[in-house]
UniProtKB/TrEMBL annotation:
Segments forming domain Response regulatory: 6-120
UniProt keyword annotation of Chloroplast present: no
Pfam families referenced in this protein's UniProt entry, alphabetically: AAA_lid_14, HTH_8, Response_reg, Sigma54_activat
Transmembrane domains' residue ranges: none
Occurrences of domain Sigma-54 factor interaction (ranges): 164-393
Alphabetical GO biological process terms: phosphorelay signal transduction system; regulation of DNA-templated transcription
Protein name per Swiss-Prot or TrEMBL: Two component Fis family sigma54 specific transcriptional regulator
Amino acid sequence: MSGQATVLVVDDEIRSLESLKRVLSEEFEVICAKDAGEARRVLESEIVHAILCDQRMQHETGVDFLKHVREVWPDPVRMIISGYSDSEDIIAGINEAGIYQYIAKPWHPDKLLDSVRGAVQLFRLQKETETAGIDMKLTPERVKRVVTEKRGAAQQLFDFDRIVHAPDSPLRDVIELGRRAADFDISVLITGESGTGKELLARAIHYGSSRSAKAFVVENCGALPDELLESELFGCKKGAFTGAYQDRIGLFEVADGGTIFLDEIGETSPAFQVKLLRVLQESEIRPLGAQRVRKVDVRVVAATNRDLEAEVRAGRFRRDLYYRLAAFPLHMPALRERPMDIPLIARRVLDEVSKAYGRAVHGIAPDALSRMQCYDWPGNVRELQNEIQRMVVLADNGQLEDRDLSPRIRSSGAPITLRNGHGNGHHNGHGNGHSVGATLKTQIEALERLMITEALDRHGGNISRVAGELGLSRVGLRNKLGRYDLRKGVSRDG
């Protein structure tokens, strides 16, 4: 169940105020104010989602009050309720005060609830579009359409099946565990080196879960000091601390009903860890400077490149918070531990970069690919992506060549070369045919890939002839073709 939204009701008629509160309290936290002055004091101390204000009050009209609210507290969705159908009031309310809806008295309880539900939904959708980087003034209908379209596109883009890996990759088991975790509302901790794709896996878990129709929000916990991190995650009132120039809705509230991804959780201070633990235990937040706590329903997926168990033993990370976050731990292997994935990832990145840069680069030379598989990739997939981008810029003849690689990769180990099917490689003057820094498994896979590539060239991609020469069954050869992304070299009659 999502946390209750807060609705401020302003009316100088006590009976009307009580009736509105009685109906709205079924679904919302309702704060009542008998006039505009009292309502302003509420807005100074509380985070409010929607305001329902009577038009004709003694000292100030509803439109005048909401016009002021729009200038000082622009976030709450504003509504007017009135027993008078004065067209000038309606026009002024829409144009000057940014009124979302004009509700006529006498109102029907069900229709009133529908209107306020719509206002709260609009509030949350607008906050979601802000965190998604959409900087535009939109009508309520357009906001809903944009968010729905973005969620649909994200669900396709971040599907588990789009995490590139070979059939025998160690990543395969991680993805399968991620699929299982997605089905259950359990906290997930993803560990792994920087650049291994932890956020990609977190997004797949969210969009593969029952929360996929709600928000997925991200916060890098290592990028901000405690006070700013608290205001980002839990929200704050204007003036709560130096630099708090306006009310801020926290990301936990934006993610209500959905998922929050806390990246670099291992970089947080012990003081902040205490506050985060309380939020996870109680499922409630209190914005800085606010007096009331707010219930939230959020799934937490955290990630770190640290060994959190070692951090717990060293006293730098709270043990109780660790066990709260790591109910379902997952580890993303480094790219050097899965060289069989490099050809597939490189091909995917090449296709995307070539299209983005408008360059007709469609292939990777075998010797360049072999050298990529021999390199350790300390920056993991992120470093590989950057390298492909650089190579696409430098490519001259429609494919990425060995000469296009960065010096650090070319100097890390020469690719194994073959002549007449026999190993006759060299490395920087050494005659032993190995690559410095490469594991035995990596060298064997590079050798196997090049033998298959040369055999395909000699026999025009004929599967039967290549399998016969290499002493493989047709099925065994086809499995290796898939593993090394070599199917494009196979002829139809193979």
